[in-house]
Write a structure and sequence with these properties.
Layout: E1 3-8, H1 12-23, E2 28-34, H2 37-47, E3 51-55, H3 63-73, E4 78-83, H4 86-98, E5 102-106, H5 111-117, H6 119-131, E6 158-163, H7 167-176, E7 184-189, H8 195-206, E8 210-213, E9 224-227, E10 233-239, E11 242-248, H9 260-270, E12 275-279, H10 288-296, E13 300-304, H11 314-321, E14 326-328, H12 330-342
Parallel strand pairs: 1-2, 1-3, 3-4, 4-5, 6-7, 6-12, 7-9, 8-9, 12-13, 13-14
Antiparallel strand pairs: 10-11
């Protein structure tokens, strides 16, 4: 049965473009287009859509207010339509906190050509969102108490996290459970340019860690988290006693740049037994083979379990490959990483 889609956007052009994209796919069915939240409310009652595309900036009621009301009253998978601006990225991240599944970034120029170029990505995201698991939003969670701080055993350990759809909130939950003296961490998330900087700044405010978008040559330091910038692969190299990040603009891997596999494979080559890696929620297979390489190199590997994933795609691939030593619910992953961080290298056998 086709996925029923409702488009909510005050732009007639965007509504028309999305209408054509949706109607051109037999697996999707457009149930209606709404110029504002009030028309959308009536169409939701009438058609009970499987997924909704939602603009942030709309008249009479903005998209975030509408999304908040929708998730409290009639939870429905939502795909946000976001502008590639600092204000747009902040609003999008807030929407993901409120329960939106994913987002589509509007191009800055040539919106018609830009959206048509991403036709297949938009269709795939609509289908994925319709099948996604709606989880209860955490809201503005406060950092956990500092009682779990333990003496840092070694600056050699590295935490590596990869994720895609549903990953913004999943990564945040893991980082909220880590103390300020935890091993340095690197993160790759499928996110376009601009959004990764805003996301890093948001995590820096919300967690007890120093979080920022990675720059080429940055050292991985205890208590610091480096986020791969949108449109750049992040690799890790050994430099004397230090680990540093290198950014590169090679071709997408598994359809993504940044790609989790690029980061994981580089870490497997240079860090091996010092690695603590987690692959979280996301569609597709990116990260699964990289996680397998880390396990084969002697690192400790974790995959998020199906019940706590928004989309059980990337972790499923890893589990089926035998890449994960542990399969854990999201709320236990931070503690598992800390437990491994306390152990010596002898605890990281494959």
């Amino acid at each position: 049965m086709p996925v029923r889609v409702l488009v909510v956007d005050d732009s007639a052009l965007v509504r028309s473009l999305l209408k054509d994209i949706i109607q051109g796919d037999p697996e999707l069915h457009l149930v209606g287009c709404a110029p504002d939240a009030f028309v959308a409310r009536d169409l939701i009652k009438q058609h009970a859509p499987d997924v909704i595309t939602l603009d942030v900036e709309m008249p009479r009621m903005d998209g975030l207010t509408f999304l908040d009301k929708l998730m409290k009253g009639r939870p429905t998978p939502v795909l946000m339509i976001s502008s590639l601006t600092e204000k747009g990225s902040e609003a999008t991240l807030r929407a993901l906190e409120l329960g939106a599944i994913d987002f589509i970034a509007k191009p800055r120029l040539g919106i018609a050509e830009g959206m048509q170029a991403y036709t297949e990505e938009i269709r795939a995201k609509l289908k994925t969102a319709a099948r996604a698991r709606l989880l209860r939003p955490r809201g503005d969670a406060a950092p956990a108490p500092c009682s779990n701080i333990v003496p840092l055993l070694s600056t050699e350990k590295i935490i590596a996290i990869g994720a895609s759809t549903g990953g913004t909130e999943a990564i945040k939950e893991v980082l909220l459970g880590l103390p300020p003296n935890c091993p340095g961490a690197v993160v790759t998330l499928h996110m376009p340019p601009g959004f990764t900087r805003s996301y890093a700044e948001r995590l820096d405010r919300q967690t007890r860690l120093f979080v920022r978008e990675a720059r080429d040559g940055d050292r991985i330091l205890p208590g610091h988290v480096l986020i791969a910038p949108g449109d750049y692969h992040l690799e890790v190299q050994r430099s004397g006693a230090n680990y540093i990040v290198r950014l590169q603009h090679d071709a997408p891997v598994n359809g993504h740049r940044p790609a989790v596999d690029v980061m994981f494979n580089s870490l497997a080559r240079c860090a091996g037994r010092n690695l603590l890696a987690a692959l979280l929620t996301g569609m597709g297979k990116d990260g699964a083979r990289g996680l397998q390489a880390i396990r084969q190199a002697g690192g400790h590997t974790i995959a998020q379990d199906e019940a706590s994933c928004v989309v059980y795609g990337m972790p499923r691939e890893a589990v089926e490959l035998g890449a994960a030593r542990e399969v854990l619910p999201l709320d236990r992953i931070a503690a598992a990483l800390l437990q491994q961080a306390r152990q010596s290298g002898s605890g990281n056998r494959v």
